Amino acid sequence: MWHKIIEIAGWFGEMRERYRLIKDFNNAAKIAFISGMAPTLLEAKITMGESSYKHAFSKFLGGGFRIKALSGRELKRHELIEIGRVVLDNGELVRKLISLGWDTLEVHANEGYNGAKWCLSEHANIGGFLPEQND
Fold first, then answer.
1. For residue range 40-95, what is the model confidence (pLDDT) as tens digits?
2. I need a surface site. Which of 18, 102, 107, 118 has the fewest CB within 10 A?
3. Helices (H), the chain
């Protein structure tokens, strides 16, 4: 019986961490936009994700990490990819997303129907060597 309580507490703790990451991302994006460091306001949320990108730690019905660019216009493919690279080029962030149950990165604009998506596990160097840290 007690092990069930521990499992439930762990699940809520992980969900809290997922929502905190979303909140922190959105706050940082808002600050970057307001200060003029970013030309577009970004907003992250949880979506279904792409079923073919699922991995052992994927969350059921919540494996997608979607970034919406509030651009006021339809973004070109290369602009969507540029936004996605901000996440994909940060190995630590990609690994954190995977460890919290996300499997798909999606980028969309608030106008138009174009979007881009990536399988996060293909960008995490899983099974490879981590770069050496200089202390």
1. 999 999 999 999 999 988 988 889 999 999 988 899 999 999 999 999 999 999 99
2. 18
3. 2-35, 77-88, 91-99
The CB-based long-range contact list for 16-20 (8 Å cut-off, 24+ gap) reads 17/100, 18/46, 18/59, 18/62, 18/100, 18/101, 18/102
- Name residue, tokens 């770069």: 131
Over the range 54-84, which residues count as b (16 or more CB within 10 Å of their CB) and which as e?
beeebbeebbbbbbbbebeeebeeebbeebb
Identify the DSSP state of 114: -
- Please tell me whether residue 21 adopts helix, strand or coil conformation: helix
d(CA 111, CA 98): 28
Q: How far is CA 120 from the centre of its chain?
A: 8
Domain ranges of the chain: 2-123
Dist CA 52 CA 100 (whole Å) = 18
Cβ(14)–Cβ(100) under 8 Å? Answer: yes
Measured in residues, the chain has a length of 135
